[in-house]
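Fold it.
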Amino acid sequence: MSERPEVDPAAAPATGDGGGGAGSGHGQGRGGPEAFTDRQSALVPEEMANRIARVASAHKAIDVRVLDLRSIVSYTDYFIICSGNTDRQTRAIHDAIRQELKDSQGLLPRRVEGDREARWILMDYLDCVVHVFTPDARDYYRLEQLWGEAPARVYE
């Protein structure tokens, strides 16, 4: 990954180490305008994927899956795919994931798409890309079939 997700300075004070820090995984050696905290550097991509899946599940997401793309693509490590029964529920799942990562790690997604229509909300945390679908949109786009060669696990 070439960049890290945005950091909310109000949620996480800077440590002054210039970014990355020990154990920061993909962010090592990459400075930049973002301020990183020790809490952020401790969250590796697999832990982030698990935390996102946990939050989605806790907010009644259905069929939560984590796809491991590390050996397939270079632009991300994990896809987290889940569904909400309605557009209102997909928004609530999106809001909960965003708030959890902001509060616990000071992380904001680099980009969010689809949050207005809420049929397919994409949240790009660079190392993890979150897809929150309504059931009809998930059936239509069939990401699990598209990435069928990726190791996947169902999160319950």
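The CA atoms of residues 120 and 137 lie 7 Å apart.
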